Amino acid sequence: MGNPTASSEIEIDTDFKVHVFSSSSELLEKLHQTWSSVEKQPYPAMYSSVYGGIILDPAMMVIPIDDHMVHRGHGVFDTAIILQGYLYELDVHLDRFLRSASKAKISSPFSRSTLRSILIQLTAVSKCKKGTLRYWLSAGPGDFLLSSSGCPKPAFYAVVIDHDFSQCKEGVKVITSNVAMKAPSFATMKNVNYLPNVLSVLEAEEKGAFSSVWIDEVGYIAEGPNVNVAFVTREKELVMPCFDNILSGCTAKRLLELAPKLVEQGVLKSVITRNLSVEEAKGAAEMMYVGSTLPVLPIIMWDDQPIGDGKVGELTMLVSDLLWDDMVAGPETQRLLVPYV
């Protein structure tokens, strides 16, 4: 039983008064004041199926608090790159998005073609020529229960993020993560449950590293918190871990399509996916992260041990050039010209 004497001694801060907003206009004014101090608007446009249209006012770019994605993590997402006025690999990202939604038991309020049209129109209205297009499918708003059966309709959200990025040419340090990685059924689905990913990055930052690498239960290399990882062996093989138990990265898969060009040129011996032990991975000549906005980030040190000679690898940069060139001037199958208004 509790101690009534102790509970009666709890102090209440009577000096702090909670403000009560008397009207929606007063609240909106407060939000506008917050955004007015921002030098550059990072989110030029958002789409919400709850609103039924595109929002240009950042103060109104909100999601209902009872959305099942907010309080239960019942949602999936994906991202496409905007570079030089083109959307890169929109279709492959959209396909993965819908596969993730199916695994998460979330139906889309729109057909695939309508989702695609919304995303293209949103990007066009945003006028953003360089950044990211991120989008979510949620079980939708309804109540605060565990089941989504009380959510009458799924919700689709998307936002354009004005973000400057460039080809990565400097190497970074990483650590082996001590945070438990997701089970394969969740790791292979791009869902919004990213707490392990967040904690893994925070752990790395606390140790002075850029990010981390997950090792699976068997002892094989898995992935980074939000990127795939690849290696160049001392025999000049480009190796990526198998996608069976990790996220199938769109950029990583595109790299596997492009890299055989370096085999034809005699630069690489082969390009394969297979299991790698920690010992083999740490003994590689070169190491890199592979992800959408990078597209390749050289890794020069892992757990305070140099990879190869501890410098950015020549083959890593050749691989990076392949992907970057594809993003900048690749075929129409990969790049969609945004019809800006």
Fold and architecture overview:
Strand 9 and strand 10 form a beta hairpin. Helix content is 30%, strand content 22%. The chain is globular and about 70 Å long. The termini are far apart. It is built from eleven helices and 15 strands. It has 341 residues and is an alpha+beta fold. The chain folds into two domains: 41-162, Aminotransferase class 4, branched-chain amino acid transferase, N-terminal domain (D-amino Acid Aminotransferase, Chain A, domain 1, 2-Layer Sandwich), CATH 3.30.470; 172-329, D-amino Acid Aminotransferase, subunit A, domain 2 (D-amino Acid Aminotransferase, Chain A, domain 2, Alpha-Beta Barrel). The strands form two sheets. Strands 7, 8, 9, 10, 11, 12, 13 and 14 form an eight-stranded mixed beta sheet that branches.
SSE arrangement:
Layout: H1 4-8, H2 24-36, E1 45-48, E2 53-55, H3 68-72, E3 75-83, E4 86-88, H4 90-103, H5 112-126, E5 130-138, E6 155-162, E7 172-176, H6 184-187, H7 195-206, E8 211-213, E9 228-232, E10 237-240, H8 250-258, H9 260-264, E11 270-273, H10 278-282, E12 286-290, E13 296-302, E14 305-306, H11 314-329, E15 335-337
